Amino acid sequence: MNHVYFLTPGPSQLYYTVPQHIKTALKEHICSISHRSKSFQQIVAHALEHLRALFQLPTDYYIAFTASATEVWERAIENLSQEYTLHLVNGNFSKKFYEFSKQLKRNAQKWEVSPGKGFYLSEMPPFDPPELLCLTHNETSTGVTMPLEDIYTLRKRYPEALIIVDAVSSVPYPEIDFSQIDSLFFSVQKGFGLPAGLGVWIFNQRCLAKAEELLSKGKSIGTYHSLPSLLASIQKNETPETPNVLGIYLLGKVAEDMNRRGIKTIRQEIEAKAAIAYHHLQKNNDKFSLFVNDPSHRSATVIVAEVLHRPAADFIEFCKQKGIVLGSGYGNFKGVHIRIANFPTHAKETFQHLADLMAQW
Amino acid sequence: MNHVYFLTPGPSQLYYTVPQHIKTALKEHICSISHRSKSFQQIVAHALEHLRALFQLPTDYYIAFTASATEVWERAIENLSQEYTLHLVNGNFSKKFYEFSKQLKRNAQKWEVSPGKGFYLSEMPPFDPPELLCLTHNETSTGVTMPLEDIYTLRKRYPEALIIVDAVSSVPYPEIDFSQIDSLFFSVQKGFGLPAGLGVWIFNQRCLAKAEELLSKGKSIGTYHSLPSLLASIQKNETPETPNVLGIYLLGKVAEDMNRRGIKTIRQEIEAKAAIAYHHLQKNNDKFSLFVNDPSHRSATVIVAEVLHRPAADFIEFCKQKGIVLGSGYGNFKGVHIRIANFPTHAKETFQHLADLMAQW
User: Do residue A237 and residue A311 come from a single domain?
Assistant: First the structure.
């Protein structure tokens, strides 16, 4: 099963430098060192430094590690809301974030639109200002993105709310103005091309103040992965628990590699590959139909199309035979959709090859 | 930094087959496959099969994956208690388990003895029967073990309580009669010699019934990693979130390797190595003093000694120069203790070398 390229929306193709970094990690005993040692602290410091540079993160924003983005859904609701969260829902993942809030006994409200649709803020129903506004930058199940300008508009509309952005399948692509949001999180097996099992949670002082307010009111905000606990550890370049040390090491290495390549270049490459995919899906409109109608809501990093007349599995199998693994549709769309991931590790040549396959099929 | 042996109590030396399994995993694209694919389900099924064999687990006990053992402390309290937990505390880790319960607003009671001491059940103060009795089989910070017979005695004393055993630094060594406990958990970076970032949680039907009872009473038991959610996924050989796929793959491979070697052999080897370490620490009693006085409370897998007259760091550095990395003391004992891990991957020859170093120093 060599020479296979995974254009799957996560887990996905490993970033091309990862196998070499893993070999180095084994040689340097990264998996055996103590998580309370200077060596480990240096690994954390290195990862934080390169993530900060990659995101051009303001100094008053913190970074902490969790086990997954799924975990952050839970921790964010526990730490950043006492009663009322508001969710923009347009697919399975934004919906799960909303459902977590209900499971945690919050008054969770949602503005829901159909899968494949984006949000037109002029049509937003009236909601009381929430404590926590939960946005999904890129709905991985359907390939719908939320334009950054819309996030900034919501900031103006709800200045008191904490705004948290699920950027799981879009980072490091979007050039986010962090001063317009309070928190952002992602997992590493998508845009960063790393083995799964690590989440990254970025948050600011307002988030911390909210968690501490809940704590002072006698509310439970969890234990080792509460914001105050995460922060106390990360300020020592540590983690509360023994974490996925190899994952943190690899994340630092890949963030460094990406910084060396340049985030501007990476963004341009992603846009060029997205243009190829969207162009050829539309060119082959006898076989494919884009799932997201409004071009401004089409994701650059997860491209979703309906396969016409034939089962999506046929095209997926055809591509697999040629060495490209595509994502199948999510949930109800499993038999009908293809999902094409467009992450930094994916080569333009692979997209050109995929375009040829669209024509040939 | 090659030819170094990590006798550290976790993270520790990788199990000797792990580097090769990682190479195979990379070749077979284990880190890129979908966590909703048949390939992933096979990886999970394989890991479960070999863990069940290794633990000789009764069929009515389930296995689920978390990110760490630390996580299980939290999830267990959330899912297995409404009000009252009882903890046997004799070191930093058993104490943290107790503190988690307080942070989660339970009425957490403890029977605490000094670090380095074990529990004599005849001296146990009277406690109301708890919902959840939290035991630490092997206190990693001090090298104190709890004889299995004592656990079984507590079962008779508190038949209504759920009994959960933290076996983080002892598995797969103890031959536990699972019918005498309800739950057991560990992380993989110790006895299994795997990269950190994965926890294993074993639980029975009584645990599940308790979680469902709490749920039916409208209590929050968390979200994706509640017991019912974990179980619903694992019964499909899946996990609720995108997990540490590589970790699960490696765990299955190492459990298979251990089954091939034979758990009986592994246990005998651990006992033989423990005998070497304890014998030579006592033989060099001008330099070392065993921290655990009662032989029946001395751990076979984490051996702790006080270093006499000189800083512990001197002996640790001496051993490091000779290619053996020892654990330093935990917490307040950092400057005074050495901790020697004795896991399945550690060779008898390394222990003999360590014995020589004790004499030479």
Answer: no
Structure tokens at A359: 């024509």
CATH of the domain at B289: 3.90.1150.10
Report the pLDDT value the prediction gives residue A10, as an integer from 0 to 100. 86
Domain-terminating residue out of A217, A239, A260:
A260
Interface test with A, best of B8, B169, B241, B245 (most A CBs within 10 A): B241
Q: Do A232 and A312 share a domain, yes or no? A: no
Instruction: Note the pLDDT of residue B143.
Output: 97
Question: Smallest Cβ distance to B244: which of A2, A105, A244?
Answer: A244
Residue pLDDT, tens place only, B280-300: 999 999 999 999 999 999 999
For residues B74 and B218, state if they share a domain: yes
Report d(CA A174, CA A301) in Å as an integer. Answer: 10
- The 10 Å CB-count burial string (b at 16+, else e) for B56-93 is ebeeebbbbbbbbbbbbbbbbbbbbbeebbbbbbbbbb
- Runs of H (alpha helix) within B131-262: 148-157, 205-216, 227-234, 245-261
SS3 content of chain A, % helix, strand, coil (to 5): 45, 20, 40
Residues 6+ apart with CB under 8 A from B30: B43, B245, B246, B249
Looking up tokens 């974490």 gives A243
User: b/e map of B103-130 (b: 16 or more CB within 10 Å)?
Assistant: bbebebebbebebbbbbebeeeeeeeeb
Going by C-alpha positions, the residue among A324, B342, B170, B344 that lies closest to residue B352 is: B342
Q: Assess whether A199 and A112 both reside in one domain.
A: yes
Question: Which of A73, A246, A248 to substitute to test the interface with B, most B CBs within 10 Å?
Answer: A246
The verdict on B335 and B355 lying in the same domain is: yes
Distance CA A151, CA A132 (A): 13
Task: Look at residue B107 and tell me whether its pLDDT is greater than 90.
Answer: yes
Same domain, A149 and A295: no
Instruction: Count how many domains chain B has.
Output: 2
Listed in order, strand segments (DSSP E) in chain B are: 5-7, 61-66, 84-89, 107-112, 132-136, 138-139, 144-145, 162-166, 183-187, 199-204, 288-290, 302-307, 324-328, 337-341
Which domain CATH number covers B116?
3.40.640.10
Assess whether B75 and B219 both reside in one domain.
yes
Alpha-carbon distance of A198 to A196, in angstroms, equals 6
A30-74 confidence digits (pLDDT tens): 999 999 999 999 999 999 999 999 999 999 999 999 999 999 999
- B1: confidence class by pLDDT, cuts 50, 70, 90: very low
- Do A30 and A41 sit in the same domain of this protein? yes
Q: Which residues of A touch B99 (CB under 8 A)?
A: 223
Q: Residue A1: its pLDDT value, please?
A: 44
| Angle value at C-alpha B322, between B317 and B327, nearest 5 degrees | 45
> What was the pLDDT predicted at A2?
53
DSSP classification of residue A298: B
pLDDT higher than threshold 90 for residue B109: yes
> How many angstroms separate the CA atoms of B247 and B253, rounded?
10
Own/partner contacts of A261-264, CB < 8 Å, gap of 24 or more, are A261/A344, A263/A54, A263/A172, A263/A175
Taking an 8 Å cut-off on Cβ atoms, the answer to whether A224 and B74 are in contact is yes
ipTM of the complex: 0.97
Sheet-wide strand order for B324-328: B5-7, B324-328, B337-341, B302-307, B288-290
| Predicted TM-score of the model (pTM) | 0.98
Would the CB atoms of A70 and B19 count as touching at under 8 Å?
no
Domain containing residue B334: 5-13+262-360
Residues in A touching B188 (Cβ below 8 Å): none
In whole angstroms, what is the distance from residue B359 CA to residue B266 CA? 27
Question: Which residues are within 8 A (CB) of A279 and not within 5 positions of it... i.e. 6 or more apart?
Answer: A355
Of B260, B289, B306, which residue constitutes the final position of a domain? B260
